[in-house]
């Protein structure tokens, strides 16, 4: 299945499998992929799936443009495996097929919606997000919208945040540099997250936030 891997300064922030005929990207919340940054237009671009694996991208008249491998696209264009889409400081890699599933790890595409998880009054019923604290995109807030969401830089440091009935948990998955939580190394055993916890992934600090 075709997929998109979005990153900011080398840190993976979203992993989306293209299952629908149309997948929209933009700053407004009604988009399928939301980048909450002013450099991104409200409705920036759209990915269209034809057949089983042919994916086309089209800019929707965005202010700052959509680039593929360094070139601004002027019209609807078919994506090739490994293409890099640039929208401001965001990078989105297109992969024509899914990577093999890791044994024992629940992929985020099997996720339920947040509304279907969590008991009222518990942290599991709250909306979670990660706020970037360091680098040029400090202040950017990335919502955690899957039952299992991976963050990090492949080969360097990757962590998974899981949404359970009683709250959110983080665990170290792979990479040469284990991430830290509030300055303490994270292991493979899941650790409960609390409001204002600080996660460090390969030098990028992100604050975990919970909202009603």
From TrEMBL:
InterPro entries, sorted:
Cell_Proc_Reg/RNA_Proc (IPR050923), FHA_dom (IPR000253), SMAD_FHA_dom_sf (IPR008984)
Q: Where is the signal peptide?
A: none
Record's superkingdom?
Bacteria
Cite a single Pfam family from the UniProt record: FHA
What sequence ranges are listed for the domain FHA? 23-73
Spell out the CDD domains in the cross-references: FHA
Q: Which PANTHER family does its entry note? A: NUCLEAR INHIBITOR OF PROTEIN PHOSPHATASE-1
Name listed for the protein in its UniProt record:
FHA domain-containing protein
Q: Please give the organism.
A: Polaromonas jejuensis
